[in-house]
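Review form for a predicted model. The reviewer records the input and the model, then writes brief findings.
Reviewer: anonymous (R2)
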Amino acid sequence: MVSFMSEKLAKSEKARDELYQLVEEGKLTLAKASKLIRIIYQLNQSQYAKKIGVSVETVIKIESGQANPTLETVKKILRPMKLQLIIAKI
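Model under review:
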């Protein structure tokens, strides 16, 4: 049991490092953000959908890159990691 928990924690920490690295590099996609945040919190798609207040189908579509979510849904996905989408004039 300890080994299983250690493995889950290691996977969570690795996902957190990857998430922050992709943010720093400017390469984080919404699909990747959703999946990494879910791994960090050690949730399956159903649990994650419930936590952020969207349907399981929405999470599945987002993680597969098949969704065109609203800005409100994007905020819900990013909120657990205290991330936000910034739209700026370039």
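Findings: The chain has five helices and no strands.
Further findings: The chain has a mean pLDDT of 90.
Recommendation: see findings above.
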